[in-house]
Design a protein that fits this description.
Blueprint (H helix, E strand, L loop, with lengths): L1 H28 L1 H4 L4 H10 L1 H11 L1 H10 L5 H32 L7 H5 L2 H7 L2 H26 L10 H21 L18 H7 L2 H12 L12 H11 L17 E7 L18 H6 L3 E4 L2 E2 L5 H10 L13 H4 L5 H7 L3 E6 L8 H8 L3 E3 L17 H13 L5 E6 L25 H21 L8 E7 L21 E4 L10 E3 L3 E2 L2 H9 L22 E4 L4 E4 L3 E8 L2 E8 L4 H21 L1
Parallel strand pairs: 1-6, 1-7, 2-9, 3-10, 4-5, 4-6
Antiparallel strand pairs: 2-8, 7-8, 11-12, 12-13, 13-14
């Protein structure tokens, strides 16, 4: 048993060394791109890579682990040959991926992804575009890596060889059970509620260092799993010229006039992104009195958007929509693929050009949905999540309770340089709704299956009110615009059906003393969505918003109101008088209509044109 554990431990260290050397080679090849950075930041790449490397290693050792356990029962040469064969194949595969990524990175400036299949369909193009020296060096590097590490494996890892033990019927299953369980935990990155993603390795604002830290094998296999079945013709509903003509009419916007609702072009911006807040929580929208009374009180001094919609169903989709103005697609999250989101604009980056300081606060784990890596790409200078907060703070299953995150954010803004853009992302209204019970917060008084969710929203709302009671006394408060919005919807006591326009309805409130007095307490009934936020704010600040082509300025009277949202297999389209939802069911395309029947043909054509262009844009990147 001891020899089994020792051999398995050596195999783990063997693979960790393999990825260490590969990463070192990558950094040496591209040393010119990080030469001016602090050595400590470059060296940190190896530390931040450990979790993802270990996860990859756990996948690689799973089959050898089974064969090792059989070696405790049988003294068979075929078992040793089988293990050698598995390790040899894995070595060849990982070497090809690692060396291949090192070779192409200088040209692609990106890690290997599922798109490599597109190039492998025409291998001669690869051979003819690479120089003879590049091809020879690549082949030699792969051969050298495989040879050196296989010798190391044979001389160190499996020496001395495993042999049968007494009572193998007891020790072999026990060994497999214990190490298999540990291997599974390692694969998912630990005991956290959220499995490991590429974000676990992201730590720098420099893309090359993040790319070096992300394990190339893990990244490529994950890319195949998430995106390998993309088909550019999946949502080809109409001819290209018809699509463009349809969308040109949809996206017309008055640009010669600008309605200003702010008293200054130089204001701080604080986003309060509310987890799972549906419009059904808001009394002034479609909700019930007594759930979000603090939000309702804020409406009297803000601008409430009564027909505002989430573009997606998950938090990471809200991030890409709000901060990059890019709508989510059916089945794919752009935050999972750096090769895609590197094409996106960034609200944080545009504000940084104007001298803003940027930060993001969340009481949970930003590994979820690759949010950390996406935010670093967007240019957020400071990311604060659960692991960065005081360990003495009370925690829920998913992280720090909202009341403590609100208080921490308040203290942090007191030390922030102005102007700033800061995001506070709440957490407590996400299942399992284990927020603290307080006598200050009476239960909602609604008996329904979603009552725990309603009570969690009331808890968040209570501390939202406490937050504003505290921050309105700070010197930066009179110069700050607060953007309070839901990230996506959630089932409530209203029992709104999913994948419908009403279900996507979420709150948006602009609030703060920087809002012109004549606009305070106003309601905007124009149809709008998450992707409109960045464009609208930048225009209010007099900054360039041209990169945010998917959005509209929701404050301009002449703007044609519309909103798109994704469903898992299709998309929805909302206009002032009607809406359309298309869902792919096997080979069939199911259409659903809402509102004025006279507008059904128009909303269907517009919705399909929007989804077609969105998907084609994504695939071509």
């Amino acid at each position: 048993m001891k020899r089994y554990l020792w051999t398995l431990g050596k195999l783990i260290l063997f693979w960790m060394l393999f990825f260490f050397v590969g990463r070192l080679l990558f950094l040496c090849v591209y040393h010119a791109q990080w030469a001016g950075l602090p050595f400590s930041e470059v060296a940190a790449c190896f530390a931040h890579a450990l979790r993802l490397d270990f996860s990859t290693v756990c996948y690689l050792i799973s089959l050898p682990m089974v064969l090792f356990s059989l070696s405790l029962c049988f003294n068979a040469s075929w078992l040793r040959l089988a293990v050698d064969g598995v390790v040899a194949v894995e070595l060849i595969g990982c070497s090809l991926i690692g060396i291949g990524e090192t070779v192409v990175y200088g040209e692609w400036l990106n890690k290997l992804s599922y798109k490599i299949l597109l190039y492998l369909r025409h291998p001669m193009e690869i051979l003819t575009t690479a120089t003879t020296a590049q091809l020879l060096l690549s082949v030699l590097a792969v051969l050298l890596f495989c040879a050196l590490f296989f010798v190391l494996y044979r001389k160190v890892v499996v020496r001395p060889p495993l042999c049968p033990v007494r009572r193998p019927y007891l020790w072999a299953p026990l060994a497999l059970l214990l190490t298999g369980g540990g291997c599974f935990v390692g694969m998912r990155g630990g005991f956290d509620a959220i499995p490991i993603t590429q974000s676990a390795a992201y730590y720098s604002t420099h893309a090359l260092l993040n790319d070096a830290a992300v394990n190339p094998t893990w990244n490529l296999l994950c890319s195949f799993y998430d995106f390998g079945d993309m088909d550019s013709d999946r949502y080809a509903f109409m001819a290209e010229d018809e699509m463009e003509a349809t969308l040109q009419a949809v996206q017309q916007e008055e640009t010669d006039t600008l309605v200003k609702v702010l008293t200054s072009d130089r204001v701080n911006i604080v986003f309060i992104l509310l987890e799972s807040w549906s419009a059904d929580l808001i009394e002034s929208l479609t909700g019930t009195q007594g759930v979000t009374d603090c939000f309702h009180a804020l409406e009297a001094e803000g601008i409430l958007f009564t027909r505002f919609y989430a573009n997606g169903h998950r938090s990471q989709q809200a991030m890409s929509s709000v901060f990059s103005g890019f709508p989510p697609l059916p089945m794919y999250d752009i935050t999972d693929d750096f090769s895609k989101y590197r094409h996106l604009p960034s609200l944080a980056a545009e504000l940084k050009k104007a001298g803003y300081h940027t930060s993001f606060y969340f009481g949970g784990n930003l590994d979820y949905g690759n949010i950390r890596s996406f935010l670093l790409h967007c240019g957020f200078e400071r990311l604060v999540e659960e692991k960065d907060m005081d360990r003495r703070l009370p925690r829920a299953k998913l992280g720090i309770h909202d009341q403590y995150t609100f208080a921490l954010h308040h203290r942090a803004l007191n030390e922030e340089k102005q102007p700033f853009m800061s995001v506070l992302f709440t957490m407590s209204s996400h299942s399992p709704y284990d927020q603290p019970v307080s006598p200050e917060i009476a239960p909602v008084g609604i008996q329904h299956a979603e009552t725990p969710f309603l009570n969690s929203a009331k808890y968040c709302d209570h501390y939202l009110g406490r937050y504003f009671d505290a921050v309105r006394h700070e010197p930066w408060y009179p110069h700050t615009l607060f953007v309070i919005l839901g990230d996506h919807s959630h089932p409530t006591h209203r029992e709104t059906q999913n994948q419908t326009p009403d279900y996507q309805h979420v709150p948006l409130l602009l609030y703060g003393e920087v809002i012109a007095p004549e606009w305070r307490g106003r309601r905007v009934d124009r149809v709008s969505s998450h992707v409109d936020v960045a464009r609208s704010l930048l225009r209010q600040l007099g900054l360039d918003a041209s990169a945010f082509v998917w959005g509209q300025d929701f404050l301009q009277p002449g703007t044609p109101g519309h909103a798109y949202f994704e469903s898992y297999t299709g998309g929805g389209w909302i206009r002032p008088s009607a809406a359309y939802v298309g869902l792919q069911s096997g080979r069939n395309w199911d259409s659903h209509y809402y509102g004025d029947s006279a507008a059904y043909p128009q909303v269907e054509r517009e919705g399909k044109a929007w989804l077609q262009r969105l998907y084609q844009t994504y695939v071509r990147w």
